[in-house]
Protein: Enoyl-CoA hydratase domain-containing protein 3, mitochondrial
Amino acid sequence: MSAQEKAEETNRDIVTVTIADRIATITLDDPATRNSLSRNMMARLQKILDEIKTSKEVHVVIIEGKGPVFCSGHNLKEIAAEDREAAMLALFEQCSTLMQSVVHLPQPVIAKVDGVATAAGAQLVASCDLAFATESSKFATPGVNFGLFCSTPMVAISRNVSPKHAMEMLLSGEFIDAAQAARTGLINAAVSAEELTERVMHFATRIAGKSPLTVRIGKTAFYQQLPMSLADAYAFTSRVMTENMQTHDAREGIDAFMAKRDPEWQGK
Structure:
C-alpha cells in the first residue's frame, strides 16, 4: 500500500449513514480491524445515534457490517496497549453507553448480520430491537478463551436468551450458528443470503409506516417494564396506554380503522 493509499485509509469514514424512505442504514466499514468497536468506531456510532435520536426524518434504523465480519467486538490491540485502569474503565463505559443508546433510541433498531459477530459485536446484535442474519453467520463470546470473560456482552445477551444458553456461549467461547441463535432468541430469524435484505426491509418498511410517536411510546415502555414486577408492570403500562390514547395519532388511527381508510399520522 502506498503512502497516499495509507493516508486515504486513515481518513476514510469507518461508519457511513444513508437515509431513504424514513430508514437510516448505518454501515460499519472498517475491514482492517474486522469492524471492531475501537474508541473511534464507538465515538462515530455514538455521534450518529445522538443525531438520529432527535431526527423527524428517521423512523427506523438498520445496522450492518461491510465485509465478512459484522463486528468483531472490542479492538484487542487497543485493550492490550492500555495499562491504566482508569482508561480501561472508560473504554468499557464508552461501550456500555453506546449499547444503552441503541436500546433507548426512540426509533427501532434492526441488526442486519451477514457474517461473524463476536464479543461486543454479539452484544451489539443483542442490544438491537430486532435482528436477522444469514444462515452462514456465526456468533460467539470468546473472551473466556483469552482470559477476559465477556462480562459486558453478557448483560445484553442474558436479556435476550435463557440463562443456560447464555452461559453456554459465555463459558465455552464456542461459535453458535445462526439457526441456534434464532432458536435461543439472540436473533429473530436465520435466512438465506438472498433473502436477508428483503426480510430486513420488510420489517423496516412496515415499522416506518407506523405512527413514529406510537412506536416511540411503545419501545420506551417495553424496556421500562421489563425489570418490573408483574403488578407494577401492569400499573405502569395502564398509565402508558391511557396517555397514548390522548394523542392525536391514537385517535386518528382508531378513526381510520373504523372508517376503513389509511391513517394520516402527524407524530403527535
In short: Residues 27 and 125 are 14 Å apart (CA to CA). Strands lie at 15-20, 23-28, 60-65, 69-71, 109-113, 116-118, 130-134, 138-140, 176-177, 189-191. The mean pLDDT is 94.
